[in-house]
Specification:
This protein has 10 helices and no strands. The protein has 223 residues and is mainly alpha-helical. It folds into 2 domains: 47 residues, Arc Repressor Mutant, subunit A; 147 residues, Tetracycline Repressor, domain 2 (Orthogonal Bundle), CATH 1.10.357. Helix 7 packs across helix 8. The protein is globular and about 65 Å long.
């Protein structure tokens, strides 16, 4: 009798309880670090503050991240990952490139407003001249994804006879990001300087409309 060849089981391997606990501990520390770094910056965000916020121990931070600099790199990667994850959930109207671009602009401006930790942590890193993000292995992956959404929309807009073909996706990303970032990162001083509350929903809506119209005027073909 010829023995039947046994096939390997296709049952997925379950993550062990120990591994799940380790991943949960790492995630808890990372969430706490983002909150602490966004409040105190890198210099003021001590290991002690982070372990206290995470209800963990200093040694666990060193175990999972090596040191505070390693944890800060992980925090930078995580805030970019969250941004991309949120952007990936956008449901764009492929039949209407202009409407899609409006959605993208609105998403970026609202994300900056609703996630102040994104702004404050990047502010800290820019003060340090990007010395930590340069060590990241995933930063370029995140930027490629963010710019890719704009690129796809520009391509569709060109095919629909709406947008200029010579526009670079990177330039439009920088345009939207800079207008949204500056507004949020300087909203407190600008509120005093301009004499109007930039955190007011009405003022923010006016700025959103201005940015949207500015971007669309830049990319659209002349009538």
């Amino acid at each position: 009798m010829i023995a039947k060849k046994q096939t390997a089981s296709k049952t997925p391997v379950k993550t062990s309880a120990r591994k799940r606990a380790a991943l949960a501990t790492r995630e808890t520390i990372l969430r706490a670090a983002i909150k602490v770094f966004s409040k105190y910056g890198l210099s003021g965000g001590s290991i002690d503050k982070i372990s206290h916020a995470a209800r963990s121990h200093d040694r666990m931070i060193y175990y999972y991240f090596g040191n505070k600099d390693g944890l800060f790199v992980a925090a930078l990667e995580e805030i970019y990952r969250r941004f991309n994850e949120a952007e990936a959930k956008l449901v764009l109207d492929v039949e209407n490139a202009e409407a899609s671009m409006r959605q993208i602009i609105q998403f970026i401006l609202h994300y900056y407003r609703d996630h102040p930790e994104f702004i404050t942590i990047l502010n800290s890193e820019n003060l340090l001249r990007g010395q930590h993000i340069s060590k990241s292995r995933t930063a370029r992956e995140y930027s490629t994804a963010a710019i890719g959404v704009i690129e796809q929309t520009l391509v569709r807009g060109c095919a629909q006879g709406l947008f200029r073909s010579e526009i670079r996706p990177r330039d439009i990303y920088l345009m939207i990001a800079s207008l949204g970032y500056f507004y949020q990162s300087n909203r407190f001083t600008l509120t005093a300087f301009l004499g109007e509350n930039l955190e007011s929903p009405k003022v923010f809506a006016e700025w959103e409309e201005f940015v949207t119209n500015t971007v669309l005027r830049t990319i659209k073909l002349a009538d």
